[in-house]
Amino acid sequence: MVQEYSPKIIGFLCRWCSYAGADLAGAMRLQYPPNLRIIQVPCTGRIDILHLLQAFEVGADTVFISGCHEGDCHYMTGNYHARKRVERAKEILKEVGLEPERLEMFHVSASEGPKFAAVAREMTERAYRLGPNPVKQKVRSAWLANQPAAHVAA
The domain at 9-153 falls in which architecture? Predict the structure, then answer.
């Protein structure tokens, strides 16, 4: 039986701007794909490269960080640190054989609900264009290989 591909998108959103922008998109009843999983963070500067890489390891097809506009960070320089980490994480993705386009950073303010919806659609379109995350299948296969037969059958 062939399953239809439904991409998994993870968005790390700062609580001050982008999460409020996502909330506004919902209040405005703007349509964006339902396969986006939002993780609220105090500031994009708190996101470590390991968080981004682990999102791919657990099966995300695309990942994005969305925070305050540059120069408007509630914690002064958090989004500058995040931008540098995203750039480094993209280099690591390329080194391990994943497309760097699977990861992106956006700036969405609290008043930009339509922009947030557009970002969610863009990352979903990228996931469809790039296809399933190849790491997801490898991790799942390794997990299944280490499970007792009773777990695999269930």
Answer: 3-Layer(aba) Sandwich (3.40)
Contacts of 2 (CB under 8 A, 6+ apart): none
Helix axes 113-130, 18-27, angle to 10 degrees: 100
Decide: 113 and 24 in contact? Cβ < 8 Å.
Answer: yes
- In angstroms, the CA 102 to CA 142 distance is 23
145: pLDDT strictly greater than 80: no
The pTM of this model reads 0.87
User: Which of helix, strand or coil describes residue 32?
Assistant: coil
How distant, in Å, are the alpha carbons of 3, 16, 93, 111, 142 from that of 63?
Answer: 22, 19, 12, 22, 23
